[in-house]
Design brief:
The complex is a heterodimer of chains A (406) and B (465). With 406 residues, chain A is α+β, with helices and mostly antiparallel strands. Chain A is 46% helix and 13% strand. Chain A has 16 helices and ten strands. In chain A, helix 2 runs antiparallel to helix 3. The mean pLDDT of chain B is 84. Classes of the chains: A alpha+beta (406), B mainly alpha (465).
């Protein structure tokens, strides 16, 4: 005997169906435009779709991933981008070069000292400008501090997505201290707007230095102490080791850079490969690991924090005296030409390709964001894993949606 | 009289409630007077009392069930507070500190907030199942509390199959979770419900198998008898005879109560809130409460089965006897039996202590006059002395001390559950299942085998346990 259908269908409230599951069926968001979409939005027997995001507790930002599930196992996935799209590249063309700095700020909102460097470095390259050495050292100082704050948060997020409550708050302790420090230097806590074409906005001040001194005294030891909660935690290692193994070939093919690439054994770091600023004068290692899994990426981030502390130490010892801004006209007309700059952000190689037509506005500013290319690897890494691992893999790749959606 | 002259549908809500009550009261009074005048009243009262006396067991059961249903609320509040405060401590945060001393009432306010929220039923859900699911989950937890022995003579119902009843009813909660997951019309809920079913059914097995050793040792399923078997010093607790069983039971209990690191059913970073995703208001509150009541019950069962339940870790009577203190403590209120020194002390101590307290309060509270300070000091002194005497008296009562020990052990285990949540990440579903079937179940079987063999061998050589 079959029971009467008594659940109202969502599509048509007049229709009664047997159970909610009976009306859970595949509805593509629009008529499929490509073969890949048509294939993806066709369900085999026993499969179902699940929308991860754009509002989900653990997709960082507003990434939406459509997962095709067989039980709990991910068969296929389709990242849907653009929820944070603002057209930054176009906005940059409408303001002058100085405006582009603050427009690029929110792209990498966890470490915006890096994304705001794009128009600065492009303009300086086009101008063939000699930036004062003190300004360069201050930039490196700010970059490395911001890199540590971003990495500390990465570690916390990874733990949070694996269900650990505590490391995120330990990560935020470091981030808070660094952010307060940078706020003393720049006046802002999130979007610093500190770098300028030809230097930086303001010299080091007393509050910044005293905060930095306090922090440097205990930072290295405290980070090591806090990470003991995770380093040899049986569950954490069991969840991340061997998970989401990114091979060297896949990483190179999908243009992955930064920690995910270095975790596969490729020692590519723009700071060493194509040195910029005063990085050639500083001594630091490019840590690599060969496993390429989530655990390797986690350990790599820890090692990079240590290296960054080492760099900051040297910068503070070698900091020269002098001005922090080059002499520049108030209306800055950048000579016509094209320039490509690349630099190492916490998430990989940030690149910018700028074209100037001789006016005070950029003619074109193309932004190459590392998160976008890291996200491509998700499609290769996640299928075959469980839903829970989707979070661990995505968190360990550490994409930031501001830069991806631009 | 305006209320009476007004039509019913124009009355306010308060009027609609009060008016029938007044009518009922008048009717009752008239009935009472009539019964009294006709001489029927003593007869009726006697009949009612007789009926009650004859059915005292049913009365006791109803009373116990009501109390246990009500006791879950403070228990849940307590556990939620511990969770908030202790995790905050581990996280280097302050945690709740606004409402009540040290924020103790924060969880109560959370409960009220949940009550005040909109109870929303989304379109597309299977309404009867959706509505029933929280009740099933909550009642399954509450019903297991019925057989937990809190203290000597303090238990809901002394069942001979208490242990079996406990496992049978606690398994019922899975049905509620499945109902919630299935009826919610949400794929996250569905995944959560299925995870709950898979995980809980897998972990029932090691949970029950781990206890079999105790059943073999004690020869009973009655929880009261199991606790009585562990009386004596703490070396008589079953954890020392069944260490492996205790470990397996505790791990399986963590999974059974879906506590971290096995809280896959409501893994917030993966499936939003699991089976509770579509629930709001007090229906969500019931799930939430059930989880914390479950935590208490599983801690209580671990305490009862392995840590001696209400038994004190050491029998203090010999020490007290050696010191010359009679047990149970007997307070003689006969001034004549005191020596003159003691009598002087009794006479002089109250004014001296009150004076001292007055001075201290007067100095601490600069805006109070000395008279107010004296009054407060007097009240404080009375409370302290009265409390002290009550405490001494209560310590003589068997079940009060039993309850203290039982709650101490249970809360200690609950705090351990909370600490695990603060420090451990979540396991994956395949690791969860693999751990149950590959490690816990074989280990529990080995435990049963070793226990049984040990019992037989000890019996053969003439030294039964």
């Amino acid at each position: 005997m079959t029971a009467e259908p008594r659940v109202r269908s969502l599509d048509d409230p007049e229709i009664l169906v047997h159970s909610p599951a009976a009306i859970i069926d595949a509805v593509p968001p629009y008529p499929p435009r490509t073969e890949r979409e048509a294939e993806f939005y066709t369900l085999a027997d026993g499969e179902m779709f699940i929308n991860l995001g754009p509002q989900h507790p653990s997709t960082h930002g507003v990434l939406r991933v459509v997962l095709k599930l067989d039980g709990e196992r991910v068969v296929d996935l389709d990242p849907v981008l653009g929820y944070l799209h603002r057209g930054v590249e176009k906005i940059c063309e409408n303001g002058d070069w100085h405006h582009a700095i603050s427009n690029c700020d929110p792209l990498e909102y966890i470490a915006s000292m890096f994304s705001e460097a794009m128009p600065v470095l492009v303009a300086e390259k086009l101008l063939d400008l000699d930036v004062p050495r003190r300004a360069e050292y201050i930039r490196v100082l700010a970059w490395e501090l911001n890199r540590i704050s971003s990495h500390a948060l990465f570690i916390g997020w990874l733990a949070l997505d694996l269900g650990g409550l505590t490391p995120i708050l330990y990560g935020f302790i470091e981030r808070d201290e660094i952010v307060e420090m940078l706020a003393a230097l720049t006046g802002q806590k999130l979007l610093f707007n500190y770098l300028r074409i030809g230097g930086v906005n303001g010299d080091l001040n007393h509050e910044f230095l005293s905060r930095l001194g306090d922090w440097m005294g205990h930072a290295a030891k405290r980070i090591e102490d806090q990470m003991r909660l995770m380093n040899e935690n049986e569950i954490f290692v069991g969840r991340t080791r061997g998970l989401g193994v990114l091979t060297r070939e896949t990483a190179l093919r999908t243009c992955v850079t930064g920690p995910p690439l270095r975790a596969t054994g490729v020692p590519y770091d723009v700071r060493r490969a194509h040195p910029y600023s005063v990085y050639p004068e500083l001594e630091f290692d490019i840590p690599t690991r060969t496993e390429g899994d989530s655990y390797a990426r986690y350990l790599l981030h820890l090692e990079e924090i240590r290296q960054s502390i080492h760099i900051i130490d040297q910068v503070l010892h070698q900091m020269p005296d002098g001005p922090v801004m080059a002499k520049l006209p108030r209306l800055l007309r950048v000579p016509p030409g094209r320039a490509w700059v690349a630099f190492e952000s916490p998430r990989g190689q940030y690149g910018a390709y700028g074209i100037s037509d001789g006016t005070d506005q950029p003619f074109r500013l193309r932004i190459h964001d590392p998160s976008y290319f890291t996200l491509q690897a998700v499609g290769e890494l996640v299928p075959g894993h469980l839903v829970a691992d989707t979070m661990a893999i995505m968190a360990s790749l550490d994409p930031i949606m501001g830069g991806i959606d631009k | 009289m305006t209320a009476l002259s007004r039509p019913w549908n124009r009355l306010s809500l308060a009027g609609k409630i009060i008016l029938p009550l007044v009518a009922v009261l008048i009717a009752l009074n008239i009935t009472l007077v009539v019964l009294w005048m006709s001489g029927l009243l003593p007869f009726l009262v006697q009949a009612i009392l007789d009926t009650l006396g004859a059915n005292i067991a049913i009365l006791r059961f109803l009373l116990a069930a009501t109390i246990i249903l009500l006791i879950t609320v403070p228990v849940a509040f307590m556990n939620i507070f511990f969770e908030m405060k202790l995790i905050a401590f581990v996280n280097l945060r302050i945690g709740p500190n606004r409402i009540g001393p040290w924020g103790t009432l924060a969880s109560v306010i959370h409960g009220l907030k949940v009550l005040a929220k909109e109870d929303f039923t989304p379109r597309g859900v299977d309404v009867p199942v959706f509505t029933l699911a929280p009740a099933v989950v909550y009642l399954a937890s509450v019903m297991t509390l019925l057989v937990v022995p809190f203290a000597p003579g303090l238990h809901g119902y002394d069942m001979d199959i208490g242990l079996l009843y406990f496992f049978a009813i606690s398994g019922l909660g899975v049905v509620g979770l499945m109902m919630a997951g299935w009826s919610s019309f949400n794929k996250y809920s569905l995944l959560g419900g299925l995870r709950a079913a898979a995980g809980m059914i897998s972990y029932e097995l090691p949970l029950i198998l781990a206890v079999m050793g105790i059943v073999l040792l004690s020869g009973t399923l009655n929880l009261n008898t199991i606790v009585q078997n562990q009386s004596g010093s703490f070396l008589d607790w079953y954890i020392f005879q069944q260490p492996l069983g205790a470990l397996i039971f505790f791990i399986a209990a963590t999974a059974e109560g879906s506590r971290p690191p096995f809280d896959l059913t409501e893994a917030d970073s993966e499936i939003v809130a699991g089976f509770a995703t579509e629930y709001s208001g007090m229906r969500f509150g019931f799930f939430f409460f059930a989880e914390y009541v479950n935590m208490f019950i599983l801690s209580a069962m671990t305490a009862v089965l392995f840590l001696g339940g209400w038994n004190a870790p050491l029998d203090l009577a010999p020490i007290a006897n050696a010191l010359g203190i009679a047990t149970p403590i007997d307070i003689a209120l006969d001034p004549g039996s005191m020596g003159p020194g003691l009598l002087w002390l009794v006479l002089l101590a109250p004014p001296l202590i009150v004076g001292g307290l007055t001075a201290v309060i007067w100095m601490l509270k600069s805006d109070w006059s000395i008279i107010v300070s004296a009054i407060v000091a007097f009240v404080l002194f009375n409370l302290l002395v009265g409390g002290g005497v009550m405490l001494l008296l209560a310590m003589g009562i068997d079940w009060v001390m039993g309850l203290v020990w039982f709650l101490g052990k249970t809360i200690g285990l609950s705090l351990f559950f909370v600490l695990m949540r603060a420090t451990l990440p979540r396991v994956r579903i395949d690791q969860l299942m693999g751990f149950a079937w590959k490690w816990l179940v074989p280990a529990a079987l080995v435990n049963i085998f070793v226990t049984a063999a040990a019992i037989v061998v000890l019996h053969e050589i003439g030294r039964p346990l």
